[in-house]
Every structure is written in structure tokens, then in C-alpha cells.
Amino acid sequence: MRFIFKTDYLQDIRLAQHGGHTFWYGLLGLVLLAAPWLMSEYLLAQLTFVLIYGIVGLGLMLLAGFTGLFSLGHAAFFGVGAYAQAVLTNMGWPFPLAMAVAGLLAAAVGVVVGLPALRVKGIYLGIATLAFGFIVEEGFARWESVTGGNSGLAVDVPRAFGWAADGATSFYFVCLVTAVLATLACRNLLRAPTGRAFVAIRDSEISAQSMGIHLAYYKTLSFAISAALAGIGGALYAHQIRFLSPDQFNIIQSIDLLLMVVIGGLGSLHGAFLGAIFLIGLPQAISAVKDFLPEPIGNAPGLKAVVYGAVLIAFVLFEPLGLYGRWLKVRTWFQLFPFYRQGMFRRQKAFQKSERLR
What we know:
mainly alpha, 4 strands, disordered N terminus
């Protein structure tokens, strides 16, 4: 009897829902571990950027996808972590300690932003975070004694206790380990009462408050955790890019980050990494097809922005659940074939909306 209880308990706490998840995630892990020997140095650098932006996307997903609080100034937290890491590393701090401080400093800034933002929501919250992003960007440019101002700031390689990640492969593994730990932490957080409180606030603040959820506390906590993950991503970004300037953390960066989680799929941890793949891969795809386009279109300076806008509009109109939502539909089609019904997801979405109004 005691053995059965222990088995049931382990089934409740395990991360993989069934053996298929264990197999496919294990295969993905093997591919990622072998990536430095399967890819060129350029592709490995792009994969490293995917991992970095995936970590930032996890934080923004917690805030926007699971708590329902949209931020248009997330590049500010990203920049705070990057500059904190650069300054501390250049002072000789060990890499893990500097990254921890960068994440904590970004979390503290997130709390400062989250407290005034408690009184606003929706588009007004977006405007408030947008204004904060402008303030931080200007602070990076004006605080020349620390950030180097518009002249920029060089970043040393990550070092810790005699070890240095001075190669692309070693730093890739640093980013991979950090991304896995961040994903597991977010996965466990969402299964805990804190994550359920985030989802309750997203679905209905009035219902959440009636159940005893402290809105101010959990909203501020969501901002802090999201900012901390953005700061950790910024710390890795600083070492990957090796040179920081204020224009790297402007409003365009904030919009790219929000675009990443929306296209990846709001309300899904998978969507953070799918969105990061999109964010890193789309410019490469545009460069690849640019030569085949008519010259006035291929050489247009705003081609990237036009493509981004068109893709975002297409996803909002035709696939609001993002890339992960599309994958779920494809997977369901194969599971139910030949009994799949075309209007199934439309009816399912309407049912969910009706349930939320109760």
C-alpha cells in the first residue's frame, strides 16, 4: 500500500506527462548537446541567441501570457541586466555571481515599475511601461561614467574561479544550462499556487480577488520574476554580443520581445522558444529571399518592419494562439485522423469564452 502511494505521488510531481514527452524531450536534449559538432560557428551563434531570447521570453510569457499584464518596456529590464553584468564582469566579479546580481537588480527595477502600474491596466499599462523604457534608455545614454554612454561599453568574457568561457562552444553550453534551469523553474512555478494565482488574475481579477488572491502582491511578484529573467537574459546577451550601446535596448527591442511571445503563443512556455526561433530566424529568411525580390522591394530600408507587421497581423487574425497553437492543431489532426472535424477548434474557443464569462 505504501509503495502504491509513493508511485502515485511521483506521477503527480513529474514534469513529463507520459513516456512520449520523455522520449521527445530527451531527443531534443541530445540534439542540443550535439549542436556544436553538428552546426557551423555562425549557426551555433544564432542558436545561442535563440536560447538567450528564449529566457527573456519566459519572463515576458509569465507576465503577459499567464498574468495578463502587457509590457512595452521590457527592453529596459533586458538592458539593466546587460549593463550590470558588463560592469561587474569588467570589475573582475565571477560570472555566476555577476549574473545573479544582474537578475536581482533587474527584479528590483521590476518591482519599482510594478508598484505604480498596479493602478492601471490594458493599454494604459502599456503606455506606462513604454515611458519607463524611454527613461531607462536615456539613462543608459547619459550615465557615461558607468555605461560609457553612446560610445558604448566593451564586455569581458565570462570568468569564474580560473575558468573562462572564451569560445563559442563553451558559452553556448552556459546559455543552454541557464535556459534549461529557467524553463524548469518556470514550469514548477506555474504548477505551484503562485502560478495558479497568476492565471486566475489573467482570467478575471474580480474572481481572483473574491478567492482571496492578493492582486497587488501577485502582480508585483509577476513583474519582479519577469524582470529577473529578462535581466539574466540580458547578462548572457552582454557576453554574446561583447559590446553594449543604449540603442540596443530601445522601443524597437521591446516591440520585438512582445512580438516574440505573441507569435510564439501566449500562455505557453513552448511559445517563448518558438517565438525566439521566429525572432532570430525571420531576418535570416528575409536576407535569403531578398535577392529574388524586385530591386525596389528588396533594397527598401523598411522591408524588415513591413514583414514583421504583416506577420503579426496575420497571426492575430488567423492564428491568435501563435505557433504553439498551430502545432497543437496539427498534432490533434494527426491524433484524430480520419475523424477530425474542421470546426472543432472554433467551437472549443467559443466554449472557453463562455466559461470565462460565468
